[in-house]
Automatic annotation (TrEMBL):
<feature type="active site" description="Proton donor">
    <location>
        <position position="162"/>
    </location>
</feature>
<dbReference type="Pfam" id="PF19420">
    <property type="entry name" value="DDAH_eukar"/>
</dbReference>
<dbReference type="GO" id="GO:0016403">
    <property type="term" value="F:dimethylargininase activity"/>
</dbReference>
<comment type="similarity">
    <text>Belongs to the DDAH family.</text>
</comment>
<dbReference type="GO" id="GO:0045429">
    <property type="term" value="P:positive regulation of nitric oxide biosynthetic process"/>
</dbReference>
<dbReference type="InterPro" id="IPR033199">
    <property type="entry name" value="DDAH-like"/>
</dbReference>
<protein>
    <submittedName>
        <fullName>N(G),N(G)-dimethylarginine dimethylaminohydrolase 1</fullName>
    </submittedName>
</protein>
<dbReference type="GO" id="GO:0000052">
    <property type="term" value="P:citrulline metabolic process"/>
</dbReference>
<feature type="active site" description="Nucleophile">
    <location>
        <position position="259"/>
    </location>
</feature>
<keyword id="KW-0378">Hydrolase</keyword>
<dbReference type="GO" id="GO:0016597">
    <property type="term" value="F:amino acid binding"/>
</dbReference>
<dbReference type="GO" id="GO:0006525">
    <property type="term" value="P:arginine metabolic process"/>
</dbReference>
Length: 274
């Protein structure tokens, strides 16, 4: 996969989280914050310098930073989230990427395009972009143009909010995917157009397919919440440093592990400037 990550950008949970777009059942705010704090600590324990942004009460979805930008090879592409209400989050993320990490930032010029980071799967070798309700084909084209050094394939997504709601990278050349029929269909589409070959680990629970792999550590859903899937991950990926995390509250807002951080490999020549 990618070279060693140096930083992670996260955002604290706002009091207004229950007004986030995907919320149907009430979120326990105190429990949600405890779970998010454990997640942030796990990122730090994986060797990442965590940039923790303050909660923005005017932006209930602000904790889901993944949808605002894609960072690869020391360059950031600002996304264009489908809900107009989230566009202000992107403007703020632009300032963080430039001022805190000194990264060059690109923007999508096509105003009709939509792209959310939750639909962007980078394997370390190539990109797959989910064509979902949140990301369009023109958004996938914009990403391909931003990172021409990597193959980029659009993949139709059904039955889920984002591509990474169904599968994610769980290690070098390893895809963690749910047994869910929609996830399996997407996996077949990926395999049919992939430029490289990947191993797969299949889990029972769709929420368990969303993992964060960074610097030899795999953040995954805890056995206390998803016991059967955690058992599979322990069996198949036990050679990694595993961190089981509870994430039940942010899940109520369609939140997942990957959507709460942007991982960055900051080029060495920029680190002294940060």
């Amino acid at each position: 996969m990618s070279s060693r990550f140096t930083h992670a950008i996260v955002c604290r949970v706002p009091d207004s989280i229950n007004k986030a777009i995907g919320v149907e059942n009430p979120i326990d705010l105190a429990k949600c914050r405890r779970q998010h704090e454990a997640y942030v600590q796990a990122l730090r324990d994986a060797g990442l310098d965590v940039i923790e942004l303050p909660a923005d009460e005017q932006q209930p979805d602000c904790t889901f930073v993944e949808d605002t930008a894609v960072v690869c090879n020391g360059i950031a592409l600002l996304c264009r989230p489908q809900p107009p209400s989230r566009r202000q989050e992107v403007k703020y993320m632009k300032s963080i990427l430039q001022k805190e990490l000194n990264l060059p930032v690109m923007e999508i010029s096509d105003e009709s395009a939509t792209l959310e980071g939750g639909d962007v799967l980078f394997t370390g070798r190539e990109f797959f972009v989910g064509l979902s309700e949140r990301s369009s084909r023109s958004g996938a084209v914009a990403l391909a143009n931003a990172f021409p050094e990597f193959p980029c394939s659009p993949v139709k997504v059904d039955g889920a909010l984002h591509l990474k709601s169904l599968l994610t990278m769980a290690g070098p050349d390893v895809i963690c995917v749910a047994k869910d029929k929609h996830a399996q269909e997407v996996l077949k589409r990926i395999e049919s157009c992939a430029s490289f070959t990947y191993k797969t680990v299949t889990v029972d629970d769709i929420c368990a397919a969303n993992c964060v792999y960074a610097n030899g550590t795999l953040l995954h859903r805890a056995a206390s919440e998803l016991p059967e899937s955690a058992k599979v991950i322990t069996s198949k990926l036990g050679h990694l440093k595993l961190r089981g995390l509870e994430f039940s509250e942010l899940q109520k807002a369609d939140g997942s592990l990957t959507c709460c951080s942007i991982l960055v490999s900051q080029p060495k020549h920029l680190r002294s400037l940060s």
